Amino acid sequence: MRHIAIIGSGPAGYYSAEAAQKKFGEDVAVDIIDRLPVPFGLIRTGVAPDHQSIKAVSRRYEKTNLGDNVRFIGNVTVGEDVSVAELQELYDAVVLATGAPADRALDIPGSDLDGVIGSAAFVGWYNGHPDFKDLNPPLDARSVAIIGNGNVALDVARILAKTENEFAGSDIVGHALDGLKRSKVEKITFLGRRGPHQIAMTPKELGELGQLERARPVVEGSDFPDEGDDAMLEPGMRKAVTHLRNFHIAAADAQHKPIEIIFDFFAMPVEIQGGGRVEKLIVEKTMLDNDLRSIGTGERYELECQMVISCIGYRTPPIEGVPYEHGRGRFANVDGRILPGLYCVGWARRGPSGTIGTNKPDGFAIVDAIAEDIGAGDRKEGRAGLDRLLETRGVETVTFRDWKKIEEAEIARARDGSPREKFTDIADMIAARG
Ligand code: NAP
After folding, report:
1. Which of 170, 200, 302, 423 lies in disulfide reach of 50, CB 3.0 to 4.6 Å?
2. d(CA 270, CA 291)
3. How far is Cα 99 from Cα 359, in angstroms, rounded to an integer?
4. Consecutive H or E run containing 103
5. Please, what sign has the CA dihedral across residues 380, 389, 42, 103?
6. Pocket residues: Cβ below 6 A from ligand 1
7. What is the rounded CA–CA span in Å between residue 13 and residue 11?
8. pLDDT score of 434
9. b/e 234-263 (16+ beta carbons within 10 angstroms → b)
10. What is the atom index within ligand 1 of the atom nearest the CA of 354?
11. Atom 4 (ligand 1): residue with closest C-alpha?
């Protein structure tokens, strides 16, 4: 019997578990350990609440968990309740699937002012992550600057711009919906340090901005390269740029929509200013060098704003004793191998890029590597040893069956038309299992 511990119950964790089930059949016992009492990581607290069709992938993970040889153990923090070294003693393979839940730092003066928020916190707040339920973003802001031109920036802008009506069918948490209903936002500005041909937004997600009830995207025509140059782009990117061009053309017809979502390209924030709270952003105009990197031109201007949300990517928090690559914000690894018996997968392995589906081949590849390394297993104790250790330490664990009760309670308390009202407090989650 092979014993595998997977740390993290997001997509990377579940695809690895599924791969282990398929590869080893009955000859494996997989424990998926999560810090929260509820599973699915990014699917529950990262994917936008108005993207329910993406969230539906959790049904596949549930199927994996219903197999006899895969177990979910929630409410266990690796590094506090049990160490990686202890898990390595107990399991043939320990796989870190911890994702990249921390913000890449916005390293400019003023980034510590009130009203400057990282996307991990803002996304966690509207998605009901217990760590960010008390964020209380300053929604009295009339002008909001969003730094970054990726899909997270798009999610954040769309959530800020939607009407209550447009959240029907979503599982945005009650505290966020209430806050957004009172929001004063009139102007949302994306600051992209490069141009329209360098955005990291995908076409489907970008297209949604053109369909909003009360908000209109605004793109300056002079920022575009020649239209003929679009032909050199890969098809997805070309489609995304076509959306930007259409936003420019359609701007006049959308004047009646009160919220502007402005794309400010070749714009690099260099300082945030304000007396205690953010009041303005100092922005430097940029141009591209021959390697398509942004370089400052020295020309500066001010953007008045009362909230800044930085959406410039994420990093994996280090774990004591695990080799770490600081520059790239992920575990040091070669094709997922960190040390003998210790692996990483998903964003913890490759950094925060790609779609949810990218984690599937990742999970299958890591299980191939594990199979090569551990053979038939090394007579480790596995889950019995972990259970004993956690019991002696008084750790209250949560099973998948418990989670199903928590889920039932979340469904029962949903507002009309919403699939669930998430618990945002760990104690409430644990109480809900009965
Ligand atoms: P991302 O795609 O890497 O985009 C980060 C953006 O921040 C880029 O535009 C980048 O510009 C900019 N940036 C980085 N450092 C900066 C700095 N110091 N100053 C100014 N701008 C800076 O990251 P993300 O938006 O966090 O998304 C993470 C991953 O999740 C991506 O793979 C994304 O596609 C995925 N995701 C998908 C969906 C969806 O499919 N619905 C939703 C959300 C997220 P440069 O290009 O110039 O570096």
Report:
1. 170
2. 22
3. 11
4. strand 102-103
5. negative
6. 147-153, 155, 192-194, 198, 200, 202, 205, 294, 311-314, 352-355
7. 5
8. 86
9. eeebebbbbbbeebbeebeeeeeeebbbbb
10. 32
11. 150
